[in-house]
Amino acid sequence: MSAASRTPLSAAVAVATALLLSACTSGGVSGGGGDTNFIMGKDGISTAEKGKRDPAPDLSGKTIDNKQLAVSSFMGKVVVLNVWGSWCAPCRAEAPNFQKVSTDLKAQGVQFVGINVADAKESSALAFEKTYGVTYPSLYDPSSKLMLRFKKGTLNLQAIPSTLVLDREGKIAARSLAALSEEKLRSMIDPVLAEK
Q: Where in the numbering of this chain does the Thioredoxin domain appear (predicted)?
């Protein structure tokens, strides 16, 4: 192999290695630091102990169907926040899981709320919800301003989808910076739901 043909191959290997390493670490580091009291589990889900949790910021505004919503109105319930975009393939993969679990746990006091990011048109977000049968509300956040309200280190703007579970006091109890299966989603919610 000539030196000229090795150079592009070496560059490609270096790029692939960098991408692999960044993909492997993106779930453990979020938003460039910040002390969020999260402990990473083997399943990629981070949790914060009761008494060491940060409150969620004010999350209110217009929904994708042009209504007003404040997440604080669900105080007293366990709230599952899912950051998604209609353009995001992993979001499409997890959407049926979220709808099923939302339906199953609603009577137990669990409220799902989406945060739709980076969709320039509400119609794209509405089409996504129709396609996947999503019935819970989603705040419309095309510029991702709501995500910037979270304490540094809580969410990563590049990690879409992301999911947070808020306890009944509106504090962040669990976090995932990756798409979730139904089983992983339930494993995130169940311990918070069991808290008294």
A: 50-194
Q: With bands split at pLDDT 50, 70 and 90, how would you rate the model's confidence at 11?
A: very low
pLDDT of residue 156: 75
The closest of 178, 162, 159, 160 to 81, measured between CA atoms, is 162
Do residues 111 and 136 make contact, with C-beta atoms less than 8 angstroms apart?
yes
Sign of CA dihedral 39, 94, 136, 60: positive
Helix (H) or strand (E) holding 6: helix 3-25
CA distance 188 to 196: 16
DSSP 124: H
Instruction: List all residues 6 or more positions away from 28 whose beta carbon is below 8 Å from its beta carbon.
Output: 40
- pLDDT tens, 76-120? 999 999 999 999 999 999 999 999 999 999 999 999 999 999 999
User: In sequence order, what E strands does the chain have?
Assistant: 39-40, 46-47, 60-62, 68-70, 78-84, 110-117, 138-141, 162-166, 172-176
- Look up the pTM and report it: 0.80
pLDDT at residue 164, rounded to an integer: 96
182-194 and 89-105 helices, crossing angle to 10°: 40
